[in-house]
């Protein structure tokens, strides 16, 4: 299976840096897993624009 490259925007990186480690760690893991499985179970296609989203706790990852 193909590997994909993950690139965070500066804004996303700043927001992740502000989170506590116990909240940010699952988000980082979910983002890292997107490199091997870009559409994991539970992802939803965005309406009104291109892309997908996944939820990690109370947070959404839009990609």
H-E order? HHEEE
**Quantity of strands, as a count:** 3
Mean pLDDT level: 93
What's the end-to-end separation, in Å? Answer: 19 Å
Shape: globular
Sketch the major β-sheet.
3 strands, antiparallel
Q: What is the helix fraction of residues, given as a range?
A: 25-40%
Q: From the helix content, strand content and strand pairing, which structural class follows? A: alpha+beta
Strand content: 15-25%
Number of continuous helical runs: 2
Task: Identify the strand order in the major beta sheet.
Answer: 1-2-3
The unreliable regions are none
Radius of gyration, taken over Cα atoms and rounded to an integer in Å: 12 Å
Describe the protein in words.
This protein has 63 residues and is α+β, with helices and mostly antiparallel strands. The chain has two helices and three strands, in the order ααβββ. It has a three-stranded antiparallel beta sheet with strand order 1-2-3, with helices on one face. Strand 2 and strand 3 form a beta hairpin. The two termini are 19 Å apart. The mean pLDDT is 93.
